[in-house]
Amino acid sequence: MKKILLAFLLGTATLAVGTSCTKEYYDTVVPSITMVYSRDANQWQNVQNSTTSKFVPLSVPELTDYYVKQGIVNVAISFDNESNYNTLPATIDGVSYNYEYTAGSLTVFAQDPLLEEGINVPVPQRAFFKISLTEADFVE
Question: CB atoms < 10 A from the CB of 56, how many?
Answer without folding.
Answer: 20
